[in-house]
Design a protein that fits this description.
The chain is mainly α and about 80 residues long. It has three helices and no strands.
Length: about 80
């Protein structure tokens, strides 16, 4: 998330585009309610195998968010390696 916010700051500094940023913890209905008044949502999540057995699973919440925003996103695992 930190890197995404740095990109937005650079865009804002070098263009006429301005961003209104709000931060929220995800859980319950808070993110859905906040997203009703947004043009975009940048969502960052950290997880791992220890969360795979949870019910409802985290992906169920993401699916509700995508449906609410009439959007689709493909979440995939990422591996970061030093060059």
């Amino acid at each position: 998330m930190h890197e995404a916010l740095k990109v937005l700051a650079v865009l804002q500094a070098h263009t006429t585009t301005k961003f209104g940023l709000d931060h929220a913890l995800c859980g319950g209905r808070s993110l859905l309610e906040k997203s009703k008044h947004c043009d975009a949502v940048i969502f960052n999540a950290v997880g791992g195998p220890e969360w795979g057995h949870m019910q409802p699973n985290p992906e169920a919440g993401l699916s509700r968010l995508w449906a609410h925003l009439e959007a689709f996103a493909d979440a995939a695992d990422a591996v970061v390696e030093r060059c």
